[in-house]
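Please predict the structure of the following assembly.
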Amino acid sequence: MKSILLIGQSNMAGRGYLSEVPAIYNENIEMLRNGRWQMMAEPIHSDREVAGVGPAASFAAAWSQDHLAEKLGLIPCAEGGSSIDEWASDQVLSRHALSEAKFAMESSELIGILWHQGETDSLNGRYKEYAEKLKAVFEHFRQELGLPELPIIVGTLPTFLGKTGFGLSAVEFEEINQEIERVVSELENCYLVSAENLTANPDGIHINGESQRQFGIRYYEAFAKKTDIPTALGNEDEQLSKIYGRATTKNEKIYLLSRDFALGKLDYQKFIEKFTEITK
Amino acid sequence: MKSILLIGQSNMAGRGYLSEVPAIYNENIEMLRNGRWQMMAEPIHSDREVAGVGPAASFAAAWSQDHLAEKLGLIPCAEGGSSIDEWASDQVLSRHALSEAKFAMESSELIGILWHQGETDSLNGRYKEYAEKLKAVFEHFRQELGLPELPIIVGTLPTFLGKTGFGLSAVEFEEINQEIERVVSELENCYLVSAENLTANPDGIHINGESQRQFGIRYYEAFAKKTDIPTALGNEDEQLSKIYGRATTKNEKIYLLSRDFALGKLDYQKFIEKFTEITK
């Protein structure tokens, strides 16, 4: 089994509305819960009550299409609103994320980090020290994980920032993006993913559900090809159609049926009937 | 700040339907997220997609009424379906729960454990070795946390088990309850909480939302009075009315307004209007 560490702030944790996009269930995609693996169900993060769709689910689904016989586990450690300073080596967020990653590594091989952060640092000239701090975060994680060449995929900040709602204060996102690009170009095995053409929730700061699905496809393209993705891809929606159109397996059907029964959506007799039908 | 560790299986994690009971928000009640504290919002656990109402929210709300100037933090580490063997000292669940508790203890004083487990062990004569194993779990946690006298509050298994749905297999819940009672009576600072008159979800194994709220009141009564609660209390619903009737503070209003804005339930202009109204 392989695994991927998810760190950064809210747009990595995910705030896209679940009701806006088709769900992704895949028995080969799991998420870390209490140090163990469970089948992925969004929201993958639970950093806030408003956690929703992030880039990780479609990233994992795209990975899974290329690795049909393997499992991928997602390690959710992104934290809404966190600044780059809160990811310094002595801070709780990084110590906790490393702790979670080490639990995951007891039963998986960590093959990458997905990172998205910077909205909180897009003001008051913070960009001037951002590159140095970001580089230190990446180097610290690689060192502590004992994986000096671990691939790190880094999304840029969306261009809808600085305009409205909770995004209003992020006026220096272009400066932060320049610093992100610089760090990525300076580090080995570090790849950039463009946030071009992504759409915001009405709050003006969070990437919406549909755009997060597209963003995840770009993250996977960067990971798979080991290359920067400097613009939107042409075929994101086509790839998502393939993911959504995947046939549900027997195990997934049993999972979904059991979930619906636990939620009181059908009675026991109907549950048994459907269970028998699936497993016959 | 004080804190409470939540461990056990699904009925501690919570499977009551959130739609069934009034929500509890209280700026003095927090929950551990990424090693840090956030205001409590249910579900407190995220062990499974179906996580919902457990006993912890009403426990904390009752505690808060008696400690108006203090904060309480909840550490969610219960795991759906886990057996007593999966809580042995060398297992991931206990190692992970201890790791989470230690992050919490960097910024809080741990004052107790709430435990509920045993459904998974209510078959095949497992009760014969249950007491010994349960005792070992409690002793291990106290030792590793460096708190040999840490209060542990232990709920019994509900009498609706063994009858229908997912509860069908739990035929030896009465034997398990006898073993739980024995362990509690043998350990210092360990108190029993009766599951008398609790009602199940349609799945026949999970305590419903309303009953979980009552159960939490009983857990708090045992914790506060340092005594066993061998039957239902007479005044649970009265206590819950007081909790539900508590006036919402300014900080809680800002939290709820910001949440609704993030969820797209109101536009930015309306958000600003309401925000101005709350903070004027």
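Chain B has two domains: 2-246, 247-280. The radius of gyration of chain B is 19 Å.
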